[in-house]
Amino acid sequence: MVAVFPPGIKAEGASTVVFVPTLADPADVVLAEVTGGLDVSYFLKGGQFQPGGDQPKGDDRRYGSKETFEVLGRDKPSIADIQYVIDPQAAAATPENEAYETFKAGVTGFFIIRWGLDVDAAFAAAQVVDVWPVMFGAQRKTPIAENDEFAVLTATQSVAVTGRVEYDVPIAAA
Question: Which one Pfam family would you cite for this protein (predicted)?
Answer without folding.
Answer: Phage_TTP_16
